[in-house]
Write a structure and sequence with these properties.
Length: 354
């Protein structure tokens, strides 16, 4: 039995939204979910009209970023049902991120109740165009007011929803990457494996520099030797070398993506060899010279599979697969989106139906 209190809006603003031309995370649905953490427990779960929230200037998260988020999607299925893709993985990851950031864990049943109740209420907001979806953004942050550095004693957990189109304006087309020479994203022992706000603030300047130079995103090298590849922008990265897949291992500085995990599963099931191992930028340059670098792509919920057409490192430019989408990236994109939209069989039990 749900104990969520629900206060609905009088008039939806859905008619103002152009569902044929959606960007990413620019418009939000009519309602939002909130609950608060006080005196050691999560209380007052509620759905209310989407709108402003009020805090004091001393609210600790504004100063010290004790904050974690998640991102997943709800898909419109042609039979009228709604598909979520491996949502329990997002919640488990949120709780791991929370552990790292001293934020209290969120009960799995409470989370699912909140998310599914909100999505059902907002089902009209799920776009039915293929490639479009309703992006779900759960997030949690400290709400106490103080300036000394310590964990907050109070928190708010919220879920907001945003109908979205393609993440990159390129759509499912190859992106270009610049390897930053003087910036790193994360180090082992830091917070790189947590989906916590500060990581993204830290990535803005290098990404802006890359974009000014005409590249879509940055390709991060490790923070210690500045030699091994970590991630691409806010995605995990895979390389196709000969007919094998290689992706960096989860050793503390990389965010363990759900799309990464799904990609590894699928490729192994197709009989491909998949290696989770360190891979240096020098090795990538060598394989490219030998004509053995057949492809590269990023993986993440927002873009699903994002093929890479070009990598720039110092004064070296690598052209990958002539800037075309490779067959493996294409097959993975088709398979994962096919499962998500209920067009392909869900052989792994990845779909959670609402
Ligand atoms: C969210 C995220 C990913 C991708 O994770 P998915 O679960 O596949 O969406 C990869 N890297 C970073 C830094 C991220 O924030």
């Amino acid at each position: 039995m749900s104990n969520i209190s629900i206060k609905t809006i009088n008039k939806s603003h859905i008619d103002e939204v152009d569902f044929d031309n959606l960007g990413f995370g620019e418009v939000f649905s009519d309602h939002m979910f909130s609950m608060d953490y006080e005196n050691g427990e999560w209380i007052n779960p509620r759905i209310e009209p989407y709108g402003n929230i009020e805090f004091e200037p001393a609210m600790c998260t504004l100063h010290y970023a004790q904050s974690v988020f998640e991102g997943l999607k709800a898909f419109h299925v042609n039979d009228g049902s709604i598909n979520l893709f491996r949502p329990e993985m997002n919640l488990e990851r949120m709780n791991r991120s929370n552990d790292r950031m001293c934020i209290p864990r969120i009960d799995i049943d409470m989370f699912f109740d909140a998310m599914t109740t909100l999505i059902k209420l907002e089902r009209n907001w799920i776009p039915d165009k293929k490639g479009y979806s309703l992006y779900i953004r759960p997030f949690v942050f400290g709400t106490e007011n103080f300036l000394g550095v310590h964990p907050s004693n109070t928190y708010r957990f919220m879920i907001i929803l945003s109908p979205v189109g393609a993440y990159y304006k390129e759509g499912f087309n190859p992106v270009s990457l610049l390897v930053p020479e003087e910036y790193v994203r994360a180090v082992k022992g830091g917070v790189g494996e947590a989906k916590t706000s500060g990581n993204y603030a830290a990535s803005l300047l290098p990404a802006e520099i890359a974009q000014k130079r005409g590249y879509t995103q940055v390709l991060w090298l490790d923070g210690v030797e500045h030699k091994y590849i970590d991630e691409v922008g806010t995605m995990n990265i895979f390389f196709v070398i000969d007919d094998e897949l290689v992706t960096p291992p989860l050793e503390g500085s990389i965010l363990g993506g759900i799309t990464r995990d799904s990609t590894i599963h699928l490729a192994r099931d197709w009989g491909m060899k998949v290696y989770e191992r360190r891979i240096s930028i020098d090795e990538i340059i060598e394989r490219s010279k030998e004509d053995r670098l057949k492809g590269a792509f990023g993986t993440g919920t927002a873009a699903v599979i994002s093929p890479v057409g070009e990598i720039r490192y110092k004064d070296i430019t690598l052209n990958i697969n002539d800037g075309e989408i490779g067959p493996i990236a294409r097959r993975l994109y088709d398979e994962i989106t096919g499962i998500q939209y209920g067009e392909k069989p869900d052989r792994y039990g990845w779909i959670y139906k609402i």
